[in-house]
Design goal:
Helix 3 (94-120) packs antiparallel against helix 4. It is elongated and about 60 Å long. It has five helices and no strands. The chain is mostly helical and 209 residues long.
Length: 209
């Protein structure tokens, strides 16, 4: 039996350490994949939707764009502590977060149907309605963000695993942020949606909410 030369021991140890890190990364990656997907869908839809607040046709004298902005901000903040207090049975597993994030996308669809239908006259317009949609949408955003990070951190049993999970979650967050901004600019440039008509509020022919 050939003995390992002392000079080769550091190389063998480095290789073993590299393999162990790769195994850890692969293991944690599989565990947090649902959390990363849920976070991506959550952040992407939030930023993409917010880019089109200016396209909502006001139905009263309120500045609906500014109102939706602050509703989104405070509702998102409300959803974060809510995640610490309310934990229903359908939001206790990472895979369940993906389904919640997908269900939340239906509210994004309602938002854009509201904008498109307002110009086409086939979707009833109401400042109260679109404000409530934005409120629920944003509360769910803060709620999902907290749970996604929490469940991803819980997947790691060691500090190294938790650190890796946090890095991968932050990467998903950054990718969602960048691609949603690019998508928003692209949709705006293509004029797929029309901005509101000037004077379209209560004094410009719009119906009061």
């Amino acid at each position: 039996t050939r003995r390992t030369k002392p000079s080769s021991l550091p190389a063998l140890r480095a290789r073993a350490l590299l393999l162990s890190r790769r195994a850890l990364s692969s293991y944690v990656e599989r565990l947090i994949r649902p959390c990363r997907l849920a976070l991506f869908l959550n952040i992407w839809s939030s930023i993409f939707t917010a880019a089109f607040f200016a396209y909502v046709q006001p139905q009263s004298d309120f500045d609906i764009e500014e109102l939706l902005y602050f509703i989104r901000l405070f509702s998102d903040l409300l959803g974060r502590p809510l995640a610490r207090m309310v934990r229903p049975s359908w939001a206790r597993e990472p895979n369940q977060l993906v389904w919640i994030a997908c269900g939340r996308l239906s509210l994004m669809a309602v938002f854009f149907l509201y904008i498109a239908g307002g110009h086409g006259g086939w979707f009833p317009q109401s400042d109260v309605f679109i404000t409530l949609v934005t409120c629920v949408f944003s509360v769910a955003s803060g709620y999902l963000a907290v749970l996604s990070y929490e469940y991803a951190a819980a997947a790691g049993e060691t500090k190294a695993a938790q650190a890796y999970a946090g890095t991968r979650m932050n990467t998903a967050f950054q990718i969602a942020t960048f691609t949603s901004v690019v998508a928003g600019v692209a949709v705006s440039s293509l004029n797929i949606l029309q901005p509101p008509k000037a004077g379209g509020g209560a004094n410009g022919g719009g119906s009061a909410s």
